[in-house]
Amino acid sequence: MKPIVLLKRVIFAAALIPAAALIADAFHGNLTANPIEYITHTTGDWAIRFLVITLAVTPIRRLTGWNPVIRLRRMLGLFSFFYATLHFLTWFVLDWFFDFRQMAKDVAMRPFITLGMATYLMLLALAVTSTQGSMRRLGHRWTQLHRLIYVAAGTALFHFWLARKTVVPQFQVVLVAAVVLLGFRAWWTLRTRTRAHARESVAH
Amino acid sequence: MLIRNAPDIRFSEITPKSLYLRRREFLQTAAGAAIGAAAAAVASPFAASVAAQQKGQGTGHGSKLANVKKSPLSTTGEKLTTFDDITSYNNFYEFGPYKEDPKENAWKLKPRPWTITVEGYAAKKGTFGFDEFVQPYALEERVYRMRCVEAWSMVIPWVGIPLKDIIATYQPTSQAKYVEFVTAFNPAQMPGQSTRMLPWPYVEGLRMDEAMNPLAILAVGLYDETLPNQDGAPIRLVVPWKYGFKGVKSINKIRFVDYQPKNTWQVMTPNEYGFFANVNPNVDHPRWSQASERRIGEFLRRKTLPFNGYADQVASLYAGMDPKKLY
Questions:
Q1: Are residues B186 and B254 in the same domain?
Q2: Of the partner residues A106, A111, A184, the one whose CB lies closest to the CB of residue B289
Q3: Could you tell me the residue range of the domain that residue A111 belongs to?
């Protein structure tokens, strides 16, 4: 088995551990005094963690030069979507229990819920178009569409920040990770452009 | 090639010298506690709870309080929230930002010996030991709803002393318009205080007439036992018609002042938290609705009541004031 295939399987299994732990906690009555809040926070935490981990794949490839690592990207992105879906369903089913009027009010009136919803719709669009077929059909527009992940990372972080009364350590960790990873990309893009520009100047 | 400088250590991350110098005290205490726990395990049938404390699993049950009389001011007909839930789901940032942190870390707090300093515009002032401070009063059980600003609620059988009786003892002068309460500041025992999460120490306050309302109490226990550390041992404020954050915990200073105290959450986020913080389903928090709440132990939300259901006793305090300003 190629190392990347093995790695992919290991990560797949590991990525399911938080969900399994949540189910185990539910069976053991370990969901705290406020289980709905606990499930909401746990699934939200993992959605945003996987989003940041997904953003790390390209920098890792560039830094290590190990190209096969790119094959992990879609799976990691889909795990972010998976936990975001659980997070959304927790809000939709457990928190409001199909009280559509209150939910609509919640989305319209509260910026952090609006942001969460917008983030989820973006992740949904990315998940739906994550297949090989979509990549072929959409061509270069697929790349453009999937740049949405940068916007989603921003709105997700903003949502997280607004959801808590204070800046919790958990938030600081994902914020720093996201800033470093996006900063790396910005620096990389800028450098590539400057070089291209320099080459053009020489050619003229 | 990506070469980074080592990040500078922020000033806030540098351990203050005073704390650093106390590390031995910590080691000694820890060692002493371990030996004590081992000895207790051999000697006492209550050792389990002592051992559990040392492992950081909360402070368990306190000692039984004697001669607690029932109060007619208690809320009736509501199911009490369990002792486990009241002591494992706490907002007490001095022990960490997450709900489970206080139970995990509160064993570090030493609620005895404890002093309470009374200062400001009052005839009687000074620093009093905890027992001296509470000894003059009869203890009352007060069952109250507790509504958190985060839209969850509990029903808690507090044991406490009417605040008005305590205030009467210290004879505030006519210049005293407000009472200010301050949580103890001791980062060695309250680890959250060595972060910059909130400006420390935690401060809360009441207008004098609010403090004199019969519903306001200083609680020293719950479920007929001394207050667990994570719930604000040894003494805390309970004002059931206000959001839970008004209930300042582990108080060691009470000041009679002529200004409106700057309460911690108002200082932290002035557009979201005010001074009065009266429970009001019609005034939403800027980031979430206050119209409904989740009672701990229940699945469906229930409607939030104005003044948390205590309007009959307290609404007159705010006659003529704009209710929108009472958040």
A1: yes
A2: A106
A3: 3-203
- d(Cα B125, Cα B61) in Å, to the nearest integer? 33
Chain-chain contact of A36 with B294 (C-beta, under 8 angstroms): yes
| Residues in A touching B297 (Cβ below 8 Å) | 33
Contact A56, A11 (CB under 8 A): no
Please check whether residue B4 lies inside any domain of the structure: no
Cross-chain residue pair B152–A162, CB shorter than 8 Å? no
Cα-flanking dihedrals φ and ψ of residue B235, to 5°?
-150, 135
Nearest C-alpha in B relative to A187: B2
Residue B232, token pair as written in the block: 């604000």
pLDDT reported for residue A203: 62
What is the pairing mode between strands B152-162 and B115-120? unpaired
Which amino acid appears at position A104 of this protein? A
CATH code of the domain covering residue A71: 1.20.120
* Nearest Cα residue in chain A from B292: A102
Task: Of B86, B89, B85, give the one whose Cα is nearest residue B98.
Answer: B89
Q: Is residue B7 part of a domain?
A: no
In a domain, B2, yes or no: no
Domain that includes residue B35, residue range: 16-55
CATH of the domain at B212: 3.90.420.10
Least confident of A121-135, A145-159, B46-60, B140-154: B46-60
Q: Dihedral, CA atoms, A17, A21, A27, A29, nearest 10 degrees?
A: -170
Convert the pLDDT of each residue in B46-76 to its tens digit.
333 333 444 334 456 888 998 999 999 999 9
Q: What is the pLDDT of residues A16-41, one digit of tens each?
A: 999 999 999 999 888 889 999 999 99
What are the phi and psi torsion angles at B324 (to 5°)? -70, -20
Contact with chain B for residue A169, Cβ under 8 A: yes
Residue (of B44, B271, B69, B247) closest to B163 by Cα position: B247
Give chain A's domain count: 1
Rounded distance between C-alpha atoms, residue A60 and residue A133, angstroms:
26
pLDDT score recorded for residue A110? 80
DSSP state of B299: S
Chain B partners within 8 Å of A37 (Cβ): 99, 152, 294
